[in-house]
Amino acid sequence: MRATKKIKARQSLASVQKGWEAFHKMSGMRHIANDKDYDEVVALADALVDIGAMDKKHASHSLLAVLADLIYAYDQRNYRQADVHGVDLLRFLMEQHDLRQNQLPEIGTQSVVSEILAGKRDLTVTHIRGLSERFGLSPAVFF
Predict the structure, then answer these.
(1) Residue 70 CB: number of other CB atoms within 10 A?
(2) How many CB atoms within 10 Å of residue 53?
(3) How many helices (H) and strands (E) does the chain have?
(4) Among 33, 70, 31, residue whose Cα is nearest residue 48
(5) Using alpha carbons only, how large is the chain's radius of gyration in Å?
(6) Rounded to an integer, what distance in angstroms lies between the CA atom of residue 44 and that of residue 141?
(7) pTM (2 decimals)?
(8) For residue range 82-134, what is the model confidence (pLDDT) as tens digits?
């Protein structure tokens, strides 16, 4: 069974390579080896965002997701960021989205948000799930 799959993969490799070369020339998508590559791939990702590819139902959503993975990998290799505590990320998101403490129903009341920001309470799994959905982030970034 495995040998059969390997043979089929080899047979289709030529057409994949030919298709990749054409796609690469047309799109500019590639492994990001340097800042020039990075800028070109980011520009392609931005163009996809502009045409609505953030929507999971969009025909180019998968392409945008692959580009985002490439961009993220390059950023991680070249621009390592210090680990950020979940509360620090929450403060940043609140600032970026111009949100007040009473505008986070994912967490609860203003007083609960205040206690979390003051370090008196921790974010719960339920809070993290809600925040990750709202902001389109992996729950892992809040841990």
Answers:
(1) 20
(2) 19
(3) 6, 0
(4) 70
(5) 21
(6) 25
(7) 0.52
(8) 777 789 999 999 999 999 999 999 999 999 999 999 999 999 999 999 999 99
